[in-house]
């Protein structure tokens, strides 16, 4: 790809990079301030989705424990009786099926594949079954539940999440029944009076732990169904063994236990296809649960007829549908989170690899013995300092600039933008011969910069924030890249000066990793998006060509940098030009600063969006620049909370060890990136002890800032400039300490 022609031969850049003609100020829509209600609502919705997903996935359910409880409290008539139990606090009775009668019962469904395979076998042999369903499965597959009832099969409650009910308090037991009933009502319009407890078996296995569960269910109107034979198909013992396990002894009747979900049920399907005709040949009839119970009533001389299903009320049906929608929505959201987790992981690892390769290459090239921008640049420099109420740090900043060692001389222009704290008087009192003070009414930072640019005597321009302290050689080093006539702007190396507090240490790490390391990458890819306002060098011709500074965005540094890149100028990073800035000292101040940065960056991206279609250098630069800004500046920060959210979710509801390992791997990647960045920037590694803590507070704050900025942008609001409180840098820090 050929390099663009020299800047002096280029035409003026069209479109959004031009300065707006003077005229009436545009009306700005009010912007919502950081809203705790908005963020709280988002977090509450996410928490609700995750909790529904956790409950539906049985994440709260304890597994069955081995029991050593006796049977003293269980009536003998139950222990030695049949598998159908009608028990309450007042009356206990149990029933057996008549001889040569079999009820096929299935647990843990419905399943969209295996339940339908079971139904095909039952239909082929003209047999009806009884399906004890999990409410969570009904909510996920309501259409399968409807197929069961439409086909004449019966449904029973097998709880919502398959817990060991004996380990749960009474209210949780009732909730398990009620939620399952709602799911069944929402899916089929019916209620059921049949229940089978998870981990239950034959009547002789009921112990003192189980009995209160049975009687409590009876008090709620449920009939408990246990089993006479257990196919043990869940253990996949083979078709022959399943058939053998399910077959009753002699001619006795039997409630047989099978499973239509919970894993591969191909053996179950094959065994049923063999079991049913085999038992018919032995003279057995197949019945549903209540058909068998009614036969048992008749054999016992009980004048009563049982119907398992009754119509559900309208309200119950609608509540059931709401539950189904909630579970399905939570499942879909968890699936989305899982996909986003992978996306974030790929983006994070991919970004890290690209940074290692390209930033490392950049650093090695710059440190090569024969590296040079060209002949030494000794032309005089004009430094513009826009200042609004900067009394705390303006004196130190101006002294550091005026005393720079650039051999061509330094002119410092302090543009007092309507300060009310005596900023201009402080600068005047310094009495520095190469410093001029210009007073103007408050018009904003771009206006102050343009004023300084108009008054500057020299063609090399350095723009500096009023709270930034330069190292003595910073100006000299910053302008050396202008030896290359195609360089239009140079980004300097911004350092956090006030590093004593924890929040300042976090920002120091962020500056080294997130800003300075990225600039090495972006220079290599020729898509630098921001020359920092704290220390940036410009060629006057390039600024004029790009249209100067505008107030179209709150990120005037990003705006002008993109404009320069579109115009074909090279934007580079000079790591040896170091300046010290005062970072926000409180969370509130940090929020305001980053809110403005994030919002302003999105404004700049939107302003220059149409140039992605440009031909030539403008289009190539903009496509690269906006791609990386969108991917790593907006999309990744918006999606990154998924990592922490799923980590928190996993610690409570999934495999804790796997979750912890995954989180530690991500932390390891970040730590490795930090070490590389600090080594390249020649910074001490000692401060990295706060990096793990940064993941729990600072990173979450940055996520919320980005969310708020995106919401503001989507609402079409326009944020105003937010002045931060300054205290000034300590002298030791000003000297690089």
TrEMBL record:
<dbReference type="InterPro" id="IPR011330">
    <property type="entry name" value="Glyco_hydro/deAcase_b/a-brl"/>
</dbReference>
<feature type="transmembrane region" description="Helical">
    <location>
        <begin position="701"/>
        <end position="721"/>
    </location>
</feature>
<keyword id="KW-0812">Transmembrane</keyword>
<dbReference type="InterPro" id="IPR002509">
    <property type="entry name" value="NODB_dom"/>
</dbReference>
<keyword id="KW-0472">Membrane</keyword>
<comment type="similarity">
    <text>Belongs to the glycosyltransferase 2 family.</text>
</comment>
<feature type="transmembrane region" description="Helical">
    <location>
        <begin position="336"/>
        <end position="359"/>
    </location>
</feature>
<keyword id="KW-0808">Transferase</keyword>
<feature type="region of interest" description="Disordered">
    <location>
        <begin position="1"/>
        <end position="33"/>
    </location>
</feature>
<protein>
    <submittedName>
        <fullName>Glycosyltransferase</fullName>
    </submittedName>
</protein>
<feature type="domain" description="NodB homology">
    <location>
        <begin position="100"/>
        <end position="287"/>
    </location>
</feature>
<feature type="transmembrane region" description="Helical">
    <location>
        <begin position="36"/>
        <end position="56"/>
    </location>
</feature>
<feature type="transmembrane region" description="Helical">
    <location>
        <begin position="660"/>
        <end position="680"/>
    </location>
</feature>
<dbReference type="Pfam" id="PF13641">
    <property type="entry name" value="Glyco_tranf_2_3"/>
</dbReference>
<keyword id="KW-1133">Transmembrane helix</keyword>
<dbReference type="InterPro" id="IPR029044">
    <property type="entry name" value="Nucleotide-diphossugar_trans"/>
</dbReference>
<dbReference type="Pfam" id="PF01522">
    <property type="entry name" value="Polysacc_deac_1"/>
</dbReference>
<feature type="compositionally biased region" description="Basic residues">
    <location>
        <begin position="9"/>
        <end position="30"/>
    </location>
</feature>
<keyword id="KW-0328">Glycosyltransferase</keyword>
<feature type="transmembrane region" description="Helical">
    <location>
        <begin position="625"/>
        <end position="654"/>
    </location>
</feature>
């Amino acid at each position: 790809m050929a390099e663009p022609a020299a800047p002096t031969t280029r035409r003026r850049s069209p479109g959004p990079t031009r300065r707006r003609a003077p005229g009436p100020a545009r009306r700005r829509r009010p912007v919502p301030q950081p809203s705790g209600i908005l963020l709280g609502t988002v977090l509450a919705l996410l928490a609700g989705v995750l909790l529904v997903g956790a409950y539906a996935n049985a994440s709260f359910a304890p597994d069955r424990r081995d029991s050593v409880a006796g049977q003293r409290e269980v009536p003998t008539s139950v222990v030695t009786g049949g598998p159908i139990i009608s028990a309450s606090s007042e009356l206990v009775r149990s029933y057996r099926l008549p001889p040569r009668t079999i009820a096929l019962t299935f647990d843990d469904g419905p399943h969209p594949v295996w339940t339908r395979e079971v139904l095909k076998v039952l239909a082929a042999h003209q047999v009806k079954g009884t399906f004890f369903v999990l409410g969570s499965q009904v909510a996920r597959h309501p259409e399968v539940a409807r197929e069961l009832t439409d086909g004449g099969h019966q449904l029973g409650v097998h709880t919502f999440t398959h817990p060991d009910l004996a380990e749960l308090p009474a209210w949780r037991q009732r909730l398990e029944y009620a939620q399952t009933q709602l799911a069944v009502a929402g899916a089929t319009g019916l209620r059921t009076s049949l229940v089978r407890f998870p981990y239950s078996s034959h009547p002789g296995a009921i112990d003192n732990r189980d009995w209160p569960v049975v009687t409590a269910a009876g008090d709620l109107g449920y009939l408990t169904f246990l089993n006479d034979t257990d196919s043990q198909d869940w253990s996949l013992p083979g078709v022959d063994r399943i058939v053998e396990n399910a077959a009753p002894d002699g001619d006795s009747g039997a409630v047989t236990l099978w499973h239509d979900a919970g894993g591969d049920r191909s053996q179950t399907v094959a065994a049923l296809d063999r079991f049913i005709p085999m038992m018919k040949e032995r003279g057995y009839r197949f019945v549903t649960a209540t058909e068998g119970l009614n036969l048992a009533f008749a054999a016992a001389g009980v004048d009563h007829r049982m119907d398992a299903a009754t119509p559900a009320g309208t309200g119950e049906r609608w509540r059931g549908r709401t539950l189904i929608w909630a579970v399905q929505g939570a499942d879909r959201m968890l699936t989305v989170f899982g996909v986003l987790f992978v996306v974030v992981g790929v983006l994070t690892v991919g970004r890290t690899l690209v940074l290692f390769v390209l930033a490392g290459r950049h650093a090695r090239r710059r440190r090569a013995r024969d590296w040079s921008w060209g002949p030494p640049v000794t032309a005089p420099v004009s430094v513009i300092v826009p200042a609004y109420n900067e009394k705390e740090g303006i004196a130190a900043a101006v002294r550091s600039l005026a005393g720079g060692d650039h051999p061509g001389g330094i002119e410092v222009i302090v543009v007092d933008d309507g300060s009310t704290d005596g900023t201009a008087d402080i600068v005047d009192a310094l009495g520095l011969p190469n410093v001029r003070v210009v007073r103007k009414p408050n018009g904003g930072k771009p206006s102050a910069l343009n004023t300084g640019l108009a008054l500057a005597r020299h063609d090399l321009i350095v723009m500096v924030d009023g709270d930034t302290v330069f190292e003595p050689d910073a100006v000299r080093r910053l302008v050396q890249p202008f030896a290359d006539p195609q360089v239009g702007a140079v980004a300097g190396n911004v350092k956090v000066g006030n590093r004593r507090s924890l929040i300042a240490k976090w920002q120091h790490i962020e500056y080294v990793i997130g800003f300075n390391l990225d600039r090495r990458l972006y220079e290599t890819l020729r898509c630098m998006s921001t020359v920092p306002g704290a220390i940036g060098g410009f060629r006057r011709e390039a600024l004029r060509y790009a249209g100067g500074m505008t107030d179209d965005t709150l990120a005037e540094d990003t705006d002008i940098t993109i404009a320069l890149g579109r115009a074909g100028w090279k934007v580079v990073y000079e790591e040896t030009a170091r300046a010290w800035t005062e970072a926000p000292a409180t969370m509130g101040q940090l929020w305001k600063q980053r809110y403005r940065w994030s919002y302003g960056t999105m404004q700049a991206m939107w302003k220059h969006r149409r140039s992605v279609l440009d031909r030539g250098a403008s289009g190539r630069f903009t496509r690269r620049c906006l791609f990386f800004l969108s991917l790593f500046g907006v999309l990744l920060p918006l999606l990154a909370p998924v990592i922490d959210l799923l980590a928190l979710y996993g610690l409570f509801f999934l495999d804790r060890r796997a979750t912890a390992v995954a989180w530690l791997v991500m932390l390891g990647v970040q730590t490795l990136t930090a070490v590389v960045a600090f080594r390249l920037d020649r910074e001490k590694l000692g401060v990295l002890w706060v990096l793990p803590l940064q993941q729990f507070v600072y990173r979450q704050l940055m996520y919320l800032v980005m969310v708020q900025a995106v919401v503001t942008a989507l609402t079409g609001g326009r944020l105003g400039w937010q002045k931060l409180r300054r205290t000034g840098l300590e002298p030791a820090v000003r000297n690089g300490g």
